[in-house]
Amino acid sequence: MSRQQKRCVIYCRVSTEKETQEMSLVRQEEELEQLASELGFHHVGTFADQHSGFDMDRDGLLDLLEFVQTEKIEAVLIQDETRLGRGNARMAVIHMLAKIETDIYTHHDEGRISLNEMDTMLLEILAIVEEYQRKLHNAKIKRGMQRAVREGYRPERNLKNRGNAEGRERIEVPVSEIVSLRDKGLTFEEITDVLKGLGHNISKATVHRRFKEYEVRQEG
After folding, report:
1. Where are the beta strands (DSSP E) in 52-195?
2. Any residues with CB less than 8 A from the CB of 36 and at least 6 apart, and which?
3. What is the DSSP letter of 74?
4. 65-73 contacts, C-beta under 8 A, 24 or more apart
């Protein structure tokens, strides 16, 4: 394989499980294998569904999205844009592939997918919204940490094995950290933001539950 070749996967979809539709799947795959060859791509996998395009819960689609992300696949080949989905489901899949920088090529366009002006504008809006969501999330973490520090919390004194590359200490819920931050007057939401800022993947519900469990043990 040439070092310049893009790795691609093929996605085929029909809406029902009728035998005639199965033949359509075969035809789609054959046409897309030919397209991959014409584009000079290295075809590494094929995914297919016999399912409505309005539904996101499709085994083939979910497997494709996981494979594309974990294997860093550069292109997805489809017969036409409706194969990805119908209505909002179509735009959701296009957006997800754009986020992981995977290009879409169609047999219908004989190359990169051709989106209309409305679709392009919607994708731009989604990207802007997600960027501001990330900024808001980071701001909440920063504010929670600043308040904790003002109240006397020193995270560098409480983290254990900070140099552990495997990060095993972060898998366990840091109950002592939760109690310490709660004693300093932080809300459960603020505690969750602080812990996320320290690298703990934890929800507010878990923080609240573990604190209540701690209180029960103390009372016992």
Report:
1. 75-78, 103-106, 111-112
2. 8, 10, 42, 43, 77
3. -
4. 65/93, 65/96, 65/97, 67/9, 68/9, 68/97, 68/100, 68/102, 69/100, 71/7, 71/44, 73/7, 73/8, 73/9, 73/44, 73/45, 73/102
Every domain range in the chain assigned CATH 3.40.50.1390: 7-115
- What's the rounded Cα separation, in Å, for the pair 18 and 31? 20
The whole-number average pLDDT for the span 13-30 is: 84
Identify the three-state secondary structure at position 46.
strand
For the whole model, what pTM was predicted?
0.60
Q: Which of 15, 24, 37, 52 is catalytic?
A: 15
Question: In the CATH scheme, what is the homologous superfamily, with its name and number, of domain 7-115?
Answer: Resolvase, N-terminal catalytic domain (3.40.50.1390)
Among 109-118, 124-133, 154-163, which range has the highest average pLDDT? 109-118
Question: Is-contact 76 102, C-beta < 8 A?
Answer: yes
Does the annotation count 15 as an active-site position?
Answer: yes
Single-letter code of the amino acid located at 80: D
